[in-house]
């Protein structure tokens, strides 16, 4: 994702949530500093790693295990957040994990120590968690990411929530087709801010399917509402 293309979308997200760009940048810079202090190179994903493959973008919603067939039929699995542990618990091998460390940092530590690549995301609200856990990870298995401008070892592949960032990452890695087990836009248990984030996830996935010239079944029956929303890229 070219940051000049991403930046207007990022600015719209900041405005919608009232987030502080400077906070994201401080978190990004702290994450970069870990690599600089330890003289460690981050995991560098091969841009053709998923070339031509069907990639399951596993969300952490209640339907995840009900959608196990989608996961099983995929060539590769990119798990968002706590979907990683749930899929591992039932025997799936993961190809990539995308997370801001909310709720499952200990699982992420184990994954990195096993050599499973994890895109660890820095933003203004998770600096304390980053400081607590990132130094305990195998940094050579971590892809440090930001939603602000990329800097040093910290990359920006596009996306906002763990789930849509996983989709943008898989796109960057050359995925031939994306499928979406475990995505529940109508989950009644979610609070207002999480619902707002999922609305942005919908918008960003709609943008991604347009960029890829692909149709995501996940968005069937939802596109009309997305198109009429306040999209900076419509």
Tell me what you see in this structure.
The protein is an alpha/beta fold and 234 residues long. The protein starts with a helix and ends in a 7-residue tail after the last helix. A 6-stranded parallel beta sheet has the order 5-4-3-2-1-6, sandwiched between helices. Strand 2, helix 4 (83-89) and strand 3 (96-99) form a beta-alpha-beta unit. It has 9 helices and 6 strands, in the order ααβαβαβαβαβαβαα. The model has no long low-confidence stretch (mean pLDDT 94). Helix 7 (162-172) runs parallel beside helix 8 (192-212).
Helix percent reads: 40-55%
Give the DSSP E fraction (strand runs of 2 or more residues).
Answer: 5-15%
Number of strands: 6
Q: Describe the global form.
A: globular
Enumerate the strands of the largest sheet in spatial order, edge to edge or round the barrel: 5-4-3-2-1-6
Distance between the termini: 17 Å
Structural class: alpha/beta
The overall pLDDT, averaged over residues, is: 94
The total count of helices amounts to: 9
Low-confidence region ranges: none
Main pleated sheet = 6 strands, parallel
How big is the Rg?
17 Å
The helix/strand order is HHEHEHEHEHEHEHH
């Amino acid at each position: 994702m070219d940051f000049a293309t991403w930046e207007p979308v990022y600015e719209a997200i900041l405005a919608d949530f009232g987030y502080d760009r400077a906070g994201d940048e401080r978190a990004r810079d702290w994450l970069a500093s870990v690599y600089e202090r330890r003289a460690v190179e981050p995991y560098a994903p091969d841009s053709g790693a998923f070339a031509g493959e069907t990639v399951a973008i596993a969300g952490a919603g209640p339907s995840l295990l009900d959608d196990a067939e989608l996961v099983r039929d995929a060539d590769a699995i990119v798990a968002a957040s706590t979907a990683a542990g749930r899929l591992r618990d039932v025997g799936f091998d993961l190809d990539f994990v995308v997370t801001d460390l909310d709720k499952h940092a200990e699982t992420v530590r184990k994954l990195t120590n096993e050599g499973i690549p994890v895109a660890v995301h820095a933003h203004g609200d998770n600096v304390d968690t980053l400081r607590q856990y990132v130094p305990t990870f195998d940094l050579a298995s971590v892809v440090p990411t930001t939603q602000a401008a990329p800097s040093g070892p910290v990359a920006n592949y596009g996306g906002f929530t763990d789930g849509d960032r996983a989709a943008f990452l898989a796109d960057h890695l050359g995925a031939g087709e994306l499928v979406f087990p475990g995505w529940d836009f109508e989950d009644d248990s979610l609070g207002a801010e999480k619902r707002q984030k999922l609305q942005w996830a919908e918008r960003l996935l709609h943008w991604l399917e347009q960029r890829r010239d692909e149709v995501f079944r996940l968005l069937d029956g939802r596109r009309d509402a997305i198109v009429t929303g306040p999209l900076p890229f419509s």
